[in-house]
Design goal:
The structure is a single chain. Strands 1, 2, 4, 5, 8 and 10 form a six-stranded mixed beta sheet that branches. Among the domains are: 150 residues, Jelly Rolls, CATH 2.60.120.230; 100 residues, Immunoglobulins (Immunoglobulin-like); 143 residues, no CATH class; 82 residues, Immunoglobulin-like, CATH 2.60.40. It is an all-beta fold and 687 residues long. Strand 22 and strand 23 form a beta hairpin. Helix content is 1%, strand content 46%.
Length: 687
């Protein structure tokens, strides 16, 4: 079986543009190649055309992905502002072809004020988009136009862009029939004198012969800020799609930006917006409409949630197309869209590297609903685990799946991760070349099994919590919630003792309960310059805002030396950047060492501890202990969420303690016995 390495360069790096490949193979087509883009302040936009050579029209396409990378230009700063960028199809069939002007993708440049390429810093980031719908045009010579808007100065800043198209050959999931352009333009939103519904008027259409299904492609982003609700950039409003006067899709036009893959940025990068974030593609919406008859008549309409502003009206920027297709060729057909973790892809860096549970994205390419899969995964050359997935995915729907069956990924170096989909709906997949994928898995950091979490919170002291999760089982083994940090701008130190030679996930969250006064400053990390500026302008907000920077470190218990600082500074070419400006949360996977802990640190308790029966059929355990020199060891039991459910004192050097968990839920618990600076941990299981 061939393997397609979706969204990874390691399988296609040796291919040349426009070389014909077999089904399942990938051809890289070079588009814009290290082109410097800058604004033209006199007109507010610049166009950068480039010609690319795709495989001939006789070559069938299974999928097409576009990859955009940004760097700072040589000897220039990166661009400073979050400006609209667009990728258009210009001409096809050579210079004499018609100019089409179809929008393939919409990208918002990041706040790049931190970055400059230097001799010691080669900043770069990259993003993927699925452009398969446009495959009917992406053959032979195609002009692709990159449009960069904005008004910043040209003399000292810009971006260096590179665009490539990854063409995966193979039979189409369904045959293309026709494309219709519907509502395109930037429409004022909230003006009672010029309602947006006058622009989003219902359309009547007659389907082409051979049409059996359709896909409405909607690219929508909100811009500008009015006096009432800061629409269109900073307001969340519903959009409805109607087919034959029946609502077939409702979507809140909103996007959370605090977990953006490109962080930290300058500016207000982490504030949520109307379906866009600085430093990311605008996600298009696909609305599937099935069971159609060629030549039939229909109506289609888009409605926005009613809204009235007072002045300074914002806009909703629409690009919409209706793609008409035949019926799906396969009845049962599952495919892998991407490997999220493990991955070395820059767009997935928030979730990587890992030593625990992999995450993939699957898609149903068959006409029948996808309800079950056997997913095999593991390291190349080693025995694989199998995860049994169940769900209910209609045609074209995708789902992100966490593979929870335990596989050990504590590595000495890099390795290859492999995953394969099998037995869709318990039977045979009708197209198998997109059932397997592979990625590079990098070694995680190794930390001591005992350390100190040192956390200083901000004035928003009810936002933060953290937990340590055993990555192979998903069990929370240690956690602190918002109630554990009652005092604002206070330094807290927490001793954490974990098992040796084990994979863990630290999740530090800034998603607590919003403070009083209408100020929701969640998802803003432990420092965010904007609140300081706002507090200076509006002193009444001073009590609510994060104008005192927080910090988070892992520290050696004995020496207090920093093991890992999540809130320090680093340099990316133009000065210090605050790591604490991380937005929504930190996800950090690491493995613990199996070292002998040095004197003065938290040590393994010198004790003989036996637990029986374990597992316990009724929740009753006997803890037999011998602790030389014991003057009052502490016993603690935590549930799978890390909540302490029982505490007791063990008296004397030896004895038996009757532990009663029969009133507790069946499952896994953690037993921790601590004496001075030493501790031991056991797993308890009730059935």
């Amino acid at each position: 079986m061939k393997k397609i390495y979706i969204l990874l360069c390691l399988c296609v790096a040796g291919l040349l543009p426009s070389v014909h490949a077999a089904n399942g193979d990938t051809t890289i087509v070079q588009g814009h190649n290290d082109v410097i883009i800058q604004t033209d302040p006199s007109v507010g936009q610049t166009l950068y055309p480039a010609w690319s050579v795709f495989p001939p029209a006789s070559t069938p396409y299974r999928k097409i992905y576009a990859h955009l990378s940004l760097k700072c230009p040589p000897n220039l700063n990166c661009g400073e502002w979050d400006y609209l960028n667009h990728i258009f199809i210009g001409k096809t069939g050579g210079m004499a072809g018609d100019s089409l002007g179809y929008e393939l993708g919409r990208f918002i440049t990041p706040y790049g004020n931190y970055w400059k390429t230097t001799a010691t810093n080669n900043w770069e980031h990259g993003w993927w988009i699925d452009v398969t719908d446009w495959g009917y045009l992406l053959h032979d010579s195609v002009e692709l136009i990159y449009k960069h808007t904005g008004y910043e100065a040209q003399n000292d800043r810009g971006w260096l862009i590179n665009l490539q198209y990854y063409v995966i050959e193979g039979p189409a999931i369904r045959d293309f029939v026709r494309m219709d352009t519907l509502w395109n333009g930037s429409f004022r939103y909230g003006d009672a004198a010029a309602p947006i519904e006058d622009k989003l008027n219902a359309r009547n259409l007659t389907l082409a012969p051979g049409t059996a299904s359709a896909r409405l492609w909607i690219m929508q982003s909100g811009h500008g800020s009015d006096d009432a609700d800061q629409c269109g950039e900073f307001c969340a409003k519903n959009r409805m799609v109607k087919w034959d006067n029946q609502t077939v899709n409702t979507r809140l036009v909103w996007r959370e930006c605090g977990f953006n893959s490109l962080y930290p940025q300058a500016g207000t990068w982490l504030l949520d917006r109307a379906n866009w974030c600085p430093g990311a593609f605008v996600d298009p919406d696909w609305v599937e409409i099935g069971e159609l008859t060629g030549g039939s008549n229909h109506s289609i309409d888009i409605d926005m949630e009613p809204y009235t502003a007072t002045a300074d009206f914002g806009n909703m920027f629409f690009t919409t197309y209706l793609f008409e297709y035949g019926a799906p060729h396969a009845q049962v057909d599952a495919g892998i869209e991407r490997i999220i973790a493990p991955s070395t892809d820059l767009e997935q860096k928030r979730m990587n590297p890992i030593c625990g549970q992999p995450i993939i994205k699957i898609r149903n390419n068959g006409a029948r609903a996808l309800t079950s899969l056997a997913i095999e995964y593991g390291l190349a050359g080693q025995a694989k685990a199998t995860f049994q997935w169940t769900g209910n995915l209609a045609f074209g729907q995708s789902e992100i799946v966490t593979l929870t069956n335990a596989v050990q990924y504590l590595l000495q170096g890099d390795a290859v991760f492999e995953v394969t989909l099998k037995l869709p709906n318990g039977g045979t997949d009708e197209y198998t070349l997109d059932n397997s994928a592979s990625s590079l898995i990098k070694k995680t950091d190794v930390q001591p099994h005992a350390f100190i979490v040192e956390f200083k919170n901000t004035k928003a002291n009810q936002e933060n919590s953290y937990k340590f999760i055993e990555a192979q089982t998903g069990q929370v083994v240690h956690q602190k919630g918002i109630n554990d940090f009652p005092l604002a701008t206070t330094l807290y130190r927490d001793t954490v003792v974990l098992a040796k030679n084990t994979c863990y996930i630290l999740e530090f969250s800034d998603e607590g309960t919003p403070l009083a006064g209408g100020i929701d400053q969640n998802k803003d990390g432990l420092t965010f310059w904007f609140w300081d500026a706002l507090a200076q302008q509006y002193p009444q907000y001073l009590q609510y805002l994060d104008n005192d920077d927080g910090s988070l470190q892992l520290k050696d218990y004995h020496s207090n030396a920093s093991l890992l600082n999540f809130s320090g500074t680093y340099n990316q070419g133009k000065g210090a950047i605050q790591k604490a400006d991380f937005g929504t949360k930190i996800v950090y996977q690491f493995s613990t060492s199996n070292e002998t802990v040095s004197a003065g640190t938290v040590q393994q308790l010198n004790a003989d501890i036996d637990v029986y029966p374990n597992p316990s059929p009724d929740g009753l355990f006997a803890i037999s202990y011998h602790i030389p020199g014991n003057t009052g060891a502490q016993l603690e039991v935590q549930d799978i969420r890390g909540t302490v459910v029982l505490q007791a004192q063990l008296k004397g050097e030896g004895g038996v303690y009757a532990l009663d968990l029969k009133s507790r839920a069946r499952g896994m618990y953690t037993l921790k016995i601590t004496s001075g600076k030493a501790a031991t941990v056991r797993k308890l299981v009730t059935r």
